[in-house]
Design brief:
By secondary structure, the chain is of the alpha/beta class. Helix content is about 45%, strand content about 15%.
């Protein structure tokens, strides 16, 4: 059977009961979708391993492809991992000496071993594609002195920034490379070091994942001060064992947008141009969580904008507007109805496109 030229799907989390999973997968199948992204948090690993394995099997029994999300195993995004309770030395440390409460240093040897063991578990459970969800390294604005009083600078282009990670491991690596200690604030050298950290981590981890027979997909959120920029994305894209890279042009947090369509179209185009240049597959996410009452129609506008920009793997975050989470849509029933309509509309557009090409090619 030939693979569809357009794949649609949805993130699924908040439920672990196989009887409900079966009903939900049937509903997703009726929506003519292809992919379900399941979360596998540290808690799932320790307490729901047998159940999640069954849920993966149920998903596949409906002809749906399973992607497994590393949900919170190293910190945000996602649930909180228990890893740092066992390895407090692996906390990210800001450059002002403050410990990040839940982010794990990507250079920590104990964390890299932990991720390898998580991948072993995914492979054992029958997972086939790993979805690396929004990797980033945090920074935060510093207080700067103005007129003898400390105040937050609201212009983030001018404010100095504390950055992660400045743990002992990272300090040693930085000093060995640059021949001087890590500075207090973010600099071009520390940005380069942060990019190198992300790239080195994913080089090692995707290679190990590949050795287990797993595919690797990633979603990166472009933004200032995340340790992710065009250089780091290009370098991540060039990794030989990363099969699919995309982004999430979520529009709802951007105030005063002149056009949802334009925002999603332009950002999708940038993402796909990047993945295409490295001959990688792509994934583009449509925001259905945190959807305010009365703005459900924007899901259709955003989905069609992404499709028009060239997106052919389109996924919604998340199932029924993520109603099981505090950030769920205000009207999950309507959001899910509109999500299905949006995905069906682009499905029809893709079918019409293929039929038109075939008619032009074969009809005389």
């Amino acid at each position: 059977m030939s693979k569809r030229s357009l794949l649609t799907g949805v993130a699924y989390h908040g439920n672990r009961m196989p009887s409900h999973v079966r009903a939900d997968m049937e509903e997703i199948c009726r929506a003519d979708m292809d992919i379900v992204v399941h979360m596998l948090s540290h808690t799932d690993w320790e307490r729901h391993k047998r159940i999640m394995k069954e849920n993966f099997h149920i998903t596949e029994s409906y002809g749906l492809e399973v992607w497994v999300d590393n949900w919170g195993i190293g910190g945000a995004p996602g649930d909180r991992s228990h890893f740092l309770g066992y390895h407090p030395e692996a906390h990210m440390i800001y450059s002002n000496g403050e410990m990040h409460p839940y982010q794990v240093c990507l250079n920590a040897p104990s964390y890299r071993q932990f991720v390898r063991e998580w991948l072993d578990t995914v492979a054992e459970m029958g997972g086939k594609t790993i979805f690396w969800d929004e990797p980033f390294i945090p920074t935060k604005r510093a207080e700067v002195q103005t007129n003898d009083a400390y105040t937050l600078v609201h212009d983030t282009t001018q404010a100095p920034r504390y950055y992660c990670c400045c743990c002992d491991t990272c300090k040693k690596k930085f000093e060995e490379r640059y021949n001087h200690p890590m500075p207090e604030f973010l600099t071009p050298e520390t940005e380069e070091f942060r990019t190198d950290t992300i790239v080195d981590f994913f080089t090692e981890i995707t290679e190990y994942s590949y050795s287990l027979g797993l595919k690797n997909a990633a979603c990166v959120m472009l933004g200032a001060n995340l340790g992710i920029n065009l250089d780091s994305i290009s370098r991540i894209c060039s990794l030989p064992h990363l099969d699919n890279i995309g982004s999430d042009p979520y529009w709802l947090s951007h105030k005063d947008l002149d056009s949802v369509y334009r925002f999603v179209y332009e950002n999708t185009k940038k993402s796909i141009t990047n993945s295409d240049s490295f001959k990688k597959d792509h994934n583009i996410w449509i925001q259905t969580y945190k959807n305010p009452m009365g703005r459900e129609e924007e899901i259709i506008e955003a989905t069609e904008a992404a499709y028009d920009a060239g997106a052919r793997t389109l996924l919604a975050w998340g199932y029924r507007g993520s109603e099981s989470n505090d950030y769920g849509a205000e009207n999950p029933e309507r959001v899910w109805a509109v999500t299905k309509e949006a995905m069906n509309r682009v499905r029809s557009m893709e079918r019409d496109r293929i039929l038109a090409e075939n008619r032009k090619k074969y009809m005389k």
